[in-house]
């Protein structure tokens, strides 16, 4: 028996669903690193012999492994182990419950979005600038959280790097502090004054991107996010002192 055939051993117990038994056995070999990315699985005939199952069962099992993203079949060549999928981001609305959580997200955004603004100013297209202007107008007119999210996503898209977009899309409205907490109230600000200040910060970011000023865009984004962080930090300290 070859080294590869020895890596896929039949399960110790029989499964009512024979295909599932094959899936669990091969899946365990992949997860344990016995079968490594790029390696070829044993042939159907070998797997049939190892597990005492029919060719139909083996093909069903391979189909399940393909659907799980563990293997791929190259017609006429064989079935190969894939690189394991990246783990999902463990950030969601359910994990952001406190002011401290919102502050942590802001710290992440400062490191991420300041560079996104720099790249956007260098790479943006005229059409992308027009879309940013439209989103900014909606923010100014109504203070819409959705327009605020869209404005930041458009900046991410203008980088030409899909990973910025992927992360901000995953975060969704959690990137906007006032979608989670009443920022103006916590900072003891008049809501109109608070929104006017935030709008000016957005305008500074937009204007730097408009004039293709990467350093100015980076600085404006850092100012915007750092101001949000500072307002919430003070509110957190006041809440803790009151408690």
Automatic annotation (TrEMBL):
Residues 227-237 have a biased composition (Basic and acidic residues). SMART domains: FCD (SM00895), HTH_GNTR (SM00345). Keywords: DNA-binding, Transcription, Transcription regulation. GO terms for molecular function: DNA binding; DNA-binding transcription factor activity. It holds the Pfam family GntR. Signal peptide: none annotated. Residues 16-84 form the HTH gntR-type domain. This is GntR family transcriptional regulator. The lineage of its organism: Bacteria, Pseudomonadati, Pseudomonadota, Betaproteobacteria, Burkholderiales.
């Amino acid at each position: 028996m070859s080294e590869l055939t020895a890596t896929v051993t039949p399960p110790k117990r029989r499964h009512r669903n024979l295909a599932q038994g094959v899936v669990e056995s091969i899946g365990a070999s992949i997860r344990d690193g016995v079968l490594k990315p790029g390696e070829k699985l044993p042939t159907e005939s070998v797997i049939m012999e190892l597990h005492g199952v029919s060719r139909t069962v083996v093909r069903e099992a391979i189909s399940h492994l393909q659907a799980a993203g563990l293997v791929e079949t190259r017609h006429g060549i064989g079935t190969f182990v894939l690189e394991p999928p990246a783990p999902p981001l463990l950030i969601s609305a359910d994990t952001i419950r406190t002011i401290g959580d919102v502050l942590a997200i802001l710290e992440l955004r400062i490191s991420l979005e300041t560079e996104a603004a720099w790249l956007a100013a260098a790479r943006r297209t005229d059409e992308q600038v027009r879309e940013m202007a439209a989103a900014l107008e909606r923010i100014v007119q109504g203070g819409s959280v959705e327009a605020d999210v869209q404005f930041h996503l458009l900046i991410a898209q203008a980088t030409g790097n899909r990973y910025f977009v992927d992360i901000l899309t995953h975060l969704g409205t959690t990137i906007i502090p006032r979608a989670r907490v009443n920022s103006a109230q916590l900072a003891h600000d008049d809501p109109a004054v608070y929104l006017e200040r935030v709008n000016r910060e957005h305008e500074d970011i937009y204007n730097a991107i408009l004039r293709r000023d990467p350093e100015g865009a980076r600085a404006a984004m850092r100012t915007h996010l750092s101001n949000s962080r500072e307002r919430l930090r003070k509110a957190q300290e006041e809440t803790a002192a009151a408690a």
